[in-house]
Amino acid sequence: MGLKLIVLIKQVPDIAKVRFDVEKGRIDRSSAEAEINPFDLNALEAAVQVKEKVGGIVTAISMGPPQAVTSLKDAIARGADEAILLEDKVFAGADTWATSYTLSCAIRKVGDFDLIFCGEKTVDGDTGQVGAEVAEQLGIPHIYYVSKINDISQDKIKVMSEVDESSYLLESDFPLLVSVTKDVNKPRLPTLRDKLKAMKAEIKVWHANDLSDVINLANVGYFGSPTTVHKVVIPKEKERQGKTFKDVPGGVNFVLDALEAKKLI
Ligand SMILES: Cc1cc2nc3c(=O)[nH]c(=O)nc-3n(C[C@H](O)[C@H](O)[C@H](O)COP(=O)(O)OP(=O)(O)OC[C@H]3O[C@@H](n4cnc5c(N)ncnc54)[C@H](O)[C@@H]3O)c2cc1C
Prior knowledge:
The protein is built from six helices and 13 strands. Helix 2 (69-77) crosses helix 5 (192-200) and helix 3 (96-110) packs across helix 4 (130-138). 35% of the residues are buried. Strands 11-10-9-12-8-1-6-7-13 form a nine-stranded mixed beta sheet, with helices on both faces. Strands 2-5 form a two-stranded antiparallel ribbon. A two-stranded antiparallel ribbon has the order 3-4. By secondary structure, it is α/β, with parallel strands linked by helices. The protein is globular, with a radius of gyration of 23 Å. It has helices spanning 38-54, 69-77, 96-110, 130-138, 192-200, 248-261, and strands at residues 3-8, 11-13, 19-21, 26-28, 34-36, 56-63, 82-86, 115-119, 142-152, 156-163, 166-173, 176-180, 204-206. A hairpin with a 3-residue loop joins strand 9 and strand 10 (156-163). The chain starts with a strand and ends with a helix. Bound molecules: flavin-adenine dinucleotide. The site of flavin-adenine dinucleotide has 34 residues, from helix 1, strand 6, helix 3, strand 8 and helix 4.
C-alpha cells in the first residue's frame, strides 16, 4: 500500500548573491544561480524517509518558471519518484494567496494524497504563509514548525512542533500538511548515479489549461492576487563608527565615559 506523499518545492535564487531590482520592487532572478529552497530540502528528505519507513510514493510539485525543472530534477535525484512543474505566464506575479491557490488546485488534480510536506519558509519571499494557506484551501489540518518526526504509520503521524519557545508533541491522522524546520533532518546528498538517473527523468509540466477542470483562472497570478507591493525599501546597512585614539588613556577614558553614559558601569 504505502502513503501518497507530496512535497512542495520552490526554486529560489542563491540568496548570498542575488540582487534586488528596487524600481520594479522585485528580486532580479537573473543575478544569481537558482537552487531548491533550503527548507524544502528538509521537507523532501522528510518525505523520502517516510517512504523508506512505511512505503509510498513521493511527488514533488513546484510553481515557477520553466527553469524550475532543474530543481525538480534535483528533487528526483534526492529521492522523489515523480515531479510536476506548474508553469504558465498567467501564474506569474502571484502573491502568497494566489500561489497557494494554484498549488492546491494542482494537488486536487493529483487526487489521492495522505501527507503534504513543505518548508517552514523560503529564503527569498520569507513569508512562511504558503503551506498553511495550501492546507486551508484544501480544507485539511496542518502542523507547522515540525522539528522531529517521532513516529509514522499507515494512518497516523506523531511529530514535535516548536512554536514560541515551546515544544508540542502532536499526533494527527491523514490527510495532513506538515511544515518542517531545518532541525527535522539532514538532507542527503545525491550520488552521481542518482543525478544521472534524474537527468533522464520526465518532469510533467502542467499549464493553466491542464488544470482547467479544477482551477478558476481569476484567482491566479498577478491579477488574481489580493495584495500588491506598494513600495519596496531596502534598509541601509549601518556602518560601524570607528574612532581612533593616538594615546591609550584618551581611548580608555572615552570607553569609560561611553559606558557610564549608557549606565553600564
Ligand atoms: C503582491 C506580490 C507580488 C508578487 N509578485 C511576484 C512576482 O512577480 N514574481 C515572483 O517570483 N514572486 C512574486 N511574489 C512573491 C511570491 O508571492 C512568493 O514568492 C510566493 O507566494 C511564495 O511565498 P514565499 O516565498 O513567502 O513562500 P513561504 O510561504 O515562505 O513558503 C513556505 C513553503 O511553501 C512552499 N512554497 C512556496 N512557494 C512555492 C512555490 N512557488 N512552489 C512550490 N512550493 C512553494 C515551500 O515548501 C516553502 O518552503 C509576489 C508577492 C507579492 C505579495
